[in-house]
From TrEMBL:
Annotated transmembrane regions: 6-29, 41-60, 80-102, 128-147
Record keyword tRNA processing present: no
Protein name: DUF2214 family protein
Pfam families tied to this protein: DUF2214
InterPro entries, A to Z: DUF2214_membrane (IPR018706)
Record keywords: Membrane, Transmembrane, Transmembrane helix
């Protein structure tokens, strides 16, 4: 019982960490294009990836009968499938910003004259991160609906 509660708590903390890291990315992408901003984005994105792994791992554990309601409850629930689909969409959307952050950081760390991204690249990436954040905010509402259907 204690382990199940611990896993559920870690799952919720992971979701909050996902949201927090996306908000940090949005605010960083809103500012000036600088070497420090590029490095901050790469560090925050690493935390985002770690939080996503935590959410996925604890979510899979919660699918089991040992730590959750069991697969029978989840597999027949359409809202659960929508929730997982939205999580996958957020994960897929996050690929482009992650690749950009890594490319920008590599470029910003070069010796000599670093090439920083254009302001329009920052804005475009911010739009993608905002899309991730908006979709992520739907998931807890679906979770609440899921247990009531």
């Amino acid at each position: 019982m204690f382990i199940a509660a611990l896993i559920a708590g870690l799952h919720y903390l992971g979701i909050m960490a996902l949201a927090a890291t996306l908000v940090a990315q949005v605010f960083t992408l809103r500012g000036d294009v600088s070497r420090e901003a590029v490095q901050r984005l790469a560090r925050v994105d690493l935390l985002y990836g770690m939080a996503a792994v935590l959410v996925l791992a604890t979510g899979l554990l919660r699918l089991t009968t040992a730590y959750g309601r069991g697969p029978a409850f989840f597999m027949q629930n359409g809202v659960f499938h929508l929730k997982v689909t939205l999580f996958v969409i957020v994960a897929l959307l996050s690929i482009v910003p992650t690749v950009r952050f890594l490319r920008w950081r590599r470029s910003a760390l070069r010796a000599g004259q670093p090439v920083l991204p254009a302001a329009e690249d920052f804005r475009g990436t911010r739009r993608l991160v905002m899309a991730e954040l908006h979709i992520l905010f739907l998931i807890p509402f679906l979770a609440a609906l899921m247990v009531r259907i």
